[in-house]
Amino acid sequence: MVQLEIKHEGSWKEVVRYDCAYGYAHRDSYNKRGKHTKKELHLKFEDALTLADDDIDENWETYKNKYLKGDMP
Predict the structure, then answer these.
(1) What are the residues whose beta carbons fall under 8 Å from the beta carbon of 73, sequence distance 6 or more?
(2) Residues 23-71: tens digit of each pLDDT
(3) From the CB of residue 48, how many other CB atoms can be counted at a distance below 10 Å?
(4) 55-64: burial string, b at 16+ Cβ within 10 Å, e else
(5) In what helix (H) or strand (E) does residue 57 lie, and over which residues does it extend?
(6) Using only C-alpha atoms, what is the Rg of the chain?
């Protein structure tokens, strides 16, 4: 699992999480209300891990700003 969390209003909140729970690679995106969307990645676990690391490394600030503005799905 690879996850981006931010500290918001005094506690840590999930923003984006990549994992292989349920037997397939997927990405969960969270909003401030705690609701999330799930997107299946259709990748091998190893490829999903590489994608997750690269995506969060490159886009963490964008995800953080979208989350704080309420623009996450």
Answers:
(1) 29, 31, 36, 37
(2) 999 999 999 988 999 999 999 999 999 999 999 999 999 999 999 998 8
(3) 20
(4) bbeeeeeebb
(5) helix 45-69
(6) 12
Where along the chain do its domains lie?
A: 2-69
**Tokens 């292989």, residue located:** 20
pLDDT at residue 73 greater than cutoff 90: no
User: What is the token pair recorded at 64?
Assistant: 């953080």
CB 15 within 8 A of CB 28: no
Residues sharing a CB contact under 8 Å with residue 3, sequence separation 6 or more, in sequence order: 14, 16, 17, 18, 19
Q: What is the pTM of this model?
A: 0.89
pLDDT score of 45: 96
Return the bridge partners of 16, or none: 4, 29
